Automatic annotation (TrEMBL):
Keywords: ATP-binding, Nucleotide-binding, Transport. SUPFAM superfamilies: P-loop containing nucleoside triphosphate hydrolases (SSF52540). Residues 15-251 form the ABC transporter domain. The lineage of its organism: Bacteria, Pseudomonadati, Pseudomonadota, Gammaproteobacteria, Lysobacterales. The keyword Phosphoprotein does not apply. GO terms for molecular function: ATP binding. This is ABC transporter ATP-binding protein.
Amino acid sequence: MTETVTSPAQDPALVRIRGLKTRLGNKTIFDGVDLDIPRGRITAVMGPSGTGKTTLLRHITGQLRPDTGEIRVDGQNVLTLDREGLFALRERIGYLFQNSALLTDFSVFENVAFPLRQHARLPEELIRMIVLTKLQAVGLRGAAELMPAELSGGMARRVALARAIVRDPMLLIYDEPFVGLDPIALNQVLKLIRTLNQTLGLTSIVVAHELSAVSRIADHIYLIAAGKIAAHGDPETLRRGDTDWTRQFFGGEADGPVPFHYPARDYAADLGFKQGSP
Ligand SMILES: Nc1ncnc2c1ncn2[C@@H]1O[C@H](COP(=O)(O)OP(=O)(O)OP(=O)(O)O)[C@@H](O)[C@H]1O
């Protein structure tokens, strides 16, 4: 089979996944998933709990190998990269997790400076300038000397965001960025995700459950369910979707293809009734 080589700059997709198949333990997580993450856009990945959203992120960053399939990030084949190649790729990706994962003994300034100090020997003046610029971008330059314990949940999330962009990544991955935020903090984080994506020319992947929040920022949504892409499109298209999956997931209905009951033995047998007894 001849491989089509596309120069990264020509490819409108920063992340291109084809024929992804993954089994973990005895469970099929992906059963032939094709997915594109367009450059410069915000793409949301949604789906029922345990459907493989975090697993997908781990595939993209090369932390977990699928059984088969192709994963390209900025033209590079993630599955054939060596250790150095993977390291270099991950250097160009920023992450924001729901728990913010700030270092509790470091000030806000030092938390944001941390990735800079870890990876390069930069003059202190330059570090100060970069960190203050990023803190300004998230509205927290004035909080530079505070400790994480002094921050609200929303502020902590914004500090983590400043840290995620401190090395000017090409791709920003948000894993459940809205969990536990009050409405004001949620609006601030949503606005920031949108603004940063535009002003920094980023590409963003957002894994989240909150459809109303996601709809306000995502250009494109992938709904993953039962190992496949159950639906994808812009938020409005998915909202109007008329498949069982879109109806249940976006309508939040209790009944549908996502079963209420975890797979179990026959109920009567479990209760000790003989077959055919009343
Ligand atoms: N190393 C592993 N070995 C076996 N099973 C695993 C492993 N890692 C994850 N799983 C299983 O794979 C499935 C997908 O997990 P994943 O965390 O990707 O789901 P998710 O869609 O992110 O879920 P949630 O929305 O609840 O965070 C789950 O059933 C999980 O238990």
